[in-house]
Every structure is written in C-alpha cells, then in structure tokens.
Amino acid sequence: MGDQVRNVIIVGSGPAGLTAAIYTGRANLQPLVIEGAQPGGQLMITTEVENFPGWPEGIQGPELMAKLREQAARFGAEFVTADVVEVDLRHRPFTVKTDSAAFRGQTVIVSTGATANLLDLPEVPKLMGRGVSACATCDGAFFRNQDIVVVGGGDSAMEEAGFLTRFARTVTIVHRRDELRASKIMGERVRQNPKIEFALSSTIERILGDQSGVTGVVLKSTKDGRTSELRCSGVFFAIGHTPNTALFKGQLGLDAKGYIKTRPGSSYTEVDGVFACGDVQDPTYRQAVTAAGSGCMAAIDAERWLEGHRG
Predict the structure, then answer these.
(1) Which of 211, 207, 212 is nearest to 235 (CA)?
(2) Residues 294-298: contacts with CB under 8 Å, at least 24 apart
(3) E strands within the chain?
(4) Could you give the residue ranges of the DSSP H alpha helices within 75-154?
(5) Which residues are catalytically annotated?
(6) Is 11 helix (H, G, I), strand (E, B) or coil?
(7) What local confidence, expressed as pLDDT, does residue 102 receive?
(8) The 213-221 sheet, strands edge to edge
(9) Which regions of the chain are under pLDDT 50?
(10) What DSSP letter does each residue of 244-272 carry, written as one string?
C-alpha cells in the first residue's frame, strides 16, 4: 500500500479533511485520508451541533462526522487510522509517514485543525460539551437566560463575552491578572455592558457539575489564595488556539501564531502541490461550515493543480 504514489493524501479528518475527501473522491482521484488515531476533529467532543446547514433539528457532533466519513468513503476515499509522525514536503512525490507505513503523494492537503487552549483541570474533558466550551459562536445559544463564565483577558475573550450577553443573563469574565490584556476600546466596551461582571486576579480552581451539566466554579484569588464559589451553567475558554502544525515547521510557511499561510482566496501554501484548509490555516472563523468550505477549495485547487502537472 505504501509503494503506490497517490494523487492526493489528506492529513486530518475533521470537516475540512472529509469535505476535501468527498470532492477529490468524486473527481475520481482516489484520495488517501490519514485520519489520525482519534478521527473526526473537534466535533467528536461536541454534543449538539445546531449551526451546520441542513440539520434544522441539530445533530450530534460524532454523528455528523460519521456521516461525512461515510459520504467520503462512498466516493472512493481510503482511510488510514493512524497519526502522522513525519512529512517530507521538500521533494515530490511528497512523503507522509505514520508509525507503521510511509505513503507518497503527488499532492498533500493539510487539514490537521487547531486545538483550543484549555485549563488543565480534571473536570474539563468530563464536562466538555456539557457546559464547558471553547466556542461562543457554536454554543452560546444553549445558555439563554443563564449565568456563564468566560476565562481570558484578551480581545478575543472580550468579544466572546460581548457575544454571549445576547443570550446569557450574566457573563462573568475571569482573569488571573488585576488588569485586562485587551485593547482599551474592547475593555471599555465590556465595562459598559450591564450584563458583564468581572472576577479579576482570579483563577478557576475547580469546575463544579456532573453529566447533566456545569453548576458552578471555585475561584481562587491570585493575591491571597482565598477561594469562593460562583454559580454558573457554562464555562467558556477564550485563551486562544494552537494550530496543529508542529509536523510542518521548517517545511511550510507559518504565521506568527503558527497557522499555515495560504495564498489569499485559495488553499495554496508556499509549497507547490501542498494545500491547507480548515482551522489549521484559519485563525478567524474556526467554524465547521467554514472548514468544510475551505476543504472544498483545497480539493478543487488540488484537482486543478494535478490537471496542470500531468506527466
């Protein structure tokens, strides 16, 4: 299996990678998807998805990913359930290695996503999707007339907090320093919002709750170490994302935050024949539907690139 030179190797199996697989499969390019040891991307830890077009009643994240995978397989995509440990994008055919095999491809589509930065608390994985979230746009509507917490002190945290006031009764911003890191205009905007409260010089010691949801947090003062309990139904992390680009350092152009640089309006990277789509190259939107759209772009770009490089 490793000796054959593939038309397209897709690294990653979130909405971007699977959409790229659907499109390249339908173009009869027989894509190989190296989907990771834990396939499906961030939607695999998302319960209800209400904002993906075509599902008016919503759909569970894992079910949506299973349907996308099934659709890609229907059009001839082949799947390898393993993590990529090494790539060589300096020579074509490109080489993509897992622990047990090496694959070669005329093109590579990178769709490895980004990982939300979370607090290292044992409750976080247990309550993710049950009141703990890293995406206000995705999950804010589930918290109508409820009290919620936003963790962070930068502009993105202020934007998330402001957005969440459309739904929540109150939003409390928890930040470990006594001053916000946000720009002055963003800081002033949230301070003028009557729904927003502050717990500065504070960290979250524990998240309270069970399988039915979050019930509160235990805050610890960074000044005197005292703890207090704050009741809430949701905890939103807004402390940034880390793009999954460690594999590509030194081979693909990355921006200051580590996202893969793509040519504006396309999925072309700085390496001819290598394309990137989804959250790995998108620090702005980070939505399943935009990832899927960019996966479509990468597939069409790769198809056209192959057409121009036959022989």
Answers:
(1) 207
(2) 294/16, 294/267, 295/15, 295/16, 295/17, 295/18, 295/19, 295/20, 295/23, 295/109, 295/111, 296/19, 296/20, 296/23, 297/266, 297/267, 298/16, 298/20, 298/109, 298/111, 298/267
(3) 5-11, 32-34, 48-49, 59-60, 78-80, 84-88, 94-98, 102-110, 114-116, 132-133, 147-151, 170-175, 196-200, 202-210, 213-221, 227-231, 234-237, 241-243, 274-276
(4) 123-127, 136-139
(5) 135, 138-139
(6) strand
(7) 96
(8) 202-210, 213-221, 227-231
(9) 1-2
(10) S-GGGTTTS-B-TTSPBP--TTS-B-SST
272: number of CA atoms within 13 Å, CB side?
6
Q: How far apart are CA 282 and CA 291, in angstroms?
A: 8
Q: How many CB atoms lie within 10 A of CB 260?
A: 25
Residue indicated by tokens 């919620």: 148
End-to-end CA distance of the chain: 22
The token pair that represents 110 in the structure block: 């990178």
CA 7, CA 24: separation in Å to the nearest integer? 9
One-letter identity of residue 266: S
**In sequence order, what are the beta bridge partners of 5?**
104
Beta-strand relationship, 59-60 and 48-49: antiparallel
Q: Residue for token digits 């569970």?
A: 60
CA 129, CA 7: separation in Å to the nearest integer? 37
The pLDDT value recorded for residue 37 is 81
Q: How far apart are CA 31 and CA 38, in angstroms?
A: 19
| pLDDT (0 to 100) of residue 311 | 56
Residues 52 and 138: their CA atoms lie apart, in Å, by 10
Question: Hey, CA dihedral for 83, 236, 242, 275, is it positive or negative?
Answer: positive
Give me the pLDDT at residue 1, please.
46
State both tokens at 221.
Answer: 């003062």
Report angle CA 94, 114, 90 to the nearest 5 degrees.
20
Note whether 210 and 83 are within 8 A (CB). no
